[in-house]
Write a structure and sequence with these properties.
The chain is mainly alpha-helical. It is built from 26 helices and five strands. Among the domains are: 156 residues, no CATH class; 65 residues; 98 residues. β1 and β2 form a beta hairpin. The longest helix has 25 residues.
Length: 529
């Protein structure tokens, strides 16, 4: 394979603004991750690594200078300008700490980027009272990032002096490999790492099982070295080819099983976040790849997808991740169920919704345990999901919610019991209809319960509904008339011919109720026949 020229890994001019937007978005997400997750949570380091990976290509030839204003971030040396909402939000964070000019040297390391972002997460007033952003950066020992009116040559000198004291961090520029040799920049690939493309080509053409398995192992090792250097660019192509091989009817069960294993090993949280970051910035470019990965190795992707769903800002991205988890299916259920105990009600609601879409019977018991969640929106969603998974298995739990303190939850439970045609719910629903309410203040709930009884079709309710038709209702005539129409409609659905004489008698009244009774009688006669 010919040696790639220097421009192979450079960013074309037409993509530079996209690259700046992607880097700024990654920085903003990393800052949020530091604020959002506890100190030992892996998502913090993964977010910082993703930001580092997107910044590094912009530092190949020279330093990156960013100027912050109220409505934009500008890279004057490269002629770039971002006015995205993320750029504006990040600019506010910078300007609040009186940071207007940021210089990032090519020698940027993951450690120093993390230290700088940690300063940004500190309270702005504390940063200012302790001497300002410049002193905070200096105290943190950051030599590859300068702020405000920093002399570039002094900053480079400081960085050079600091490098002599560095012990080195794996995967960072200038660190040493296991054999003590310099690994160079994170973007400088070794000949071994450049061998990924021919390995993939040989894998596709291999017809010998032993050779295929050996090539798959070499590809996995090669990708791991790329990941260690935070060079994720070639990975989407590698994943696409491996997925194609996994689904190929020409591959043996052993070859498929090992290909699946390789996919699981390659696609860790860092790679998943890289794919999702690119999806968020470049629309649906990688959507098919992520979909296929979810279908094939859903269990591996479940936790990173859940974490992204919790922090995704755009509605489009939240929908995509939720759909991806749904496609992961049964494999993702254990990870989703574990989030039902999360303290954030909106996270629990999202998990409940996804479990309903997956419709796995294994989620039935955990959902039943979540039915008394303190948040109304969660309880309503639990009822919907239980109905999708197992109407019979959820029947008793939904009936319990008829006694819920929130009217919205009760209405959802009534509707669901009608939809599942629950005969166990007939008496509790009749109790709602018969509950004393002279002025029919709860008419909407009573109508919903009547409609549910009509759908269930249990004849125990016939007498109750007929009584409504002959009730005078002097104190709230309009509401009673509306309730009678609902009762007539329900009687027409139930198939009990004992209601026919009354319906036919009232059909000649010449009003709205008469029309409803006439329609109900016609429908009932068809049902009886």
């Amino acid at each position: 394979m010919p040696e790639p020229d220097e421009n192979t890994r450079s960013i074309s001019s037409q993509d530079q603004n996209l690259q700046l937007d992607a880097a700024l978005n990654a920085l903003a997400k990393a800052q949020k991750a530091l604020n959002f997750y506890p100190p030992d949570h892996p998502q913090r380091d993964e977010a910082i690594t993703s930001a580092y990976a997107l910044l590094k290509p912009m530092l190949q030839k020279r330093e990156l200078i960013l100027l912050w204003s109220r409505d934009a971030c500008t890279a004057p040396e490269a002629g770039l300008r971002s006015t995205s909402s993320t750029a504006k939000a990040l600019a506010r964070e910078m300007l609040t700490r009186k940071l207007q000019r940021l210089i990032i040297l090519p020698e940027l390391s993951v450690r120093e980027l993390k230290a700088f972002l940690t300063i940004l997460t500190a309270d702005a007033s504390e940063v200012l009272s302790s001497g300002g952003i410049e002193k905070a950066v200096s105290r943190a020992g950051i030599s590859s990032i300068g702020v405000n009116e920093v002399d570039l040559e002094l900053l480079k000198q400081k960085q050079h002096e600091g490098a002599e004291e560095e012990t080195g961090v794996p995967g960072e520029a200038g660190s040493e490999g296991e054999d003590g040799s310099s690994s160079g920049s994170a973007m400088q690939l070794t000949p071994e790492e450049k061998s990924l493309e021919p390995l993939l080509s040989r894998l596709k053409s291999s017809v010998d099982e032993t050779e295929y398995l050996e090539l798959a192992r070499e590809i996995m090792d090669c990708v791991e070295r790329l990941k260690a250097k935070e060079f994720f660019g070639p990975l989407p192509q590698a994943l696409e080819i491996l997925l194609q091989e996994y689904s190929s009817p020409e591959r043996s069960p052993a070859e498929k099983e090992y290909t699946r294993y390789v996919l699981e090993q390659i696609t860790d949280a860092g790679v998943t976040n890289y794919l999702l970051d690119n999806l968020e910035q470049r629309s649906d470019e990688l959507s098919d790849l992520v979909d296929n990965l979810c279908t094939t190795i859903g269990k591996t992707l479940a936790y990173p997808l859940i974490q992204r769903l919790c922090v995704a800002e755009s509605l489009r991205m939240r929908k995509f991740v939720a759909n991806a988890l749904t496609r992961a299916g049964e494999a993702a259920v254990p990870a989703i169920v574990s989030m039902l105990k999360d303290e954030r009600w909106y996270v629990v609601r999202n998990m409940v919704t996804i479990l309903g879409e997956i419709a796995s019977i294994s989620a039935l018991k955990p959902l039943q345990q979540a039915i008394w969640h303190p948040e109304t929106k969660v309880r309503k969603e639990v009822v919907k999901s239980l109905l999708k998974i197992s109407p019979q298995g959820a029947e008793s739990s939904v009936i319990e919610l008829l006694g819920d303190s929130d009217p919205e939850v009760v209405r959802q439970a009534v509707y669901s019991l009608g939809a599942m045609r629950s005969h166990l719910a007939v008496k509790p629903l009749m109790a709602i209809v018969l509950a004393s309410d002279t002025f029919l203040k709860n008419m909407h709930l009573k109508k919903l319960a009547i409609a549910a009884l009509g759908r269930i079709g249990n004849r125990q309710a016939t007498a109750v509904l007929m009584d409504i038709l002959v009730t005078r209702g002097w104190l709230a005539p309009r509401r009673w008339a509306e309730l009678k129409v609902a009762a007539a409609t329900a009687l027409g659905q139930m198939g009990d011919e004992t209601a026919l004489p009354l319906l036919k008698r009232l059909a000649g009244s010449g009003n709205t109720l008469g029309e409803a009774c006439a329609d109900a009688a016609d429908n009932l006669e068809r049902v009886v026949k």
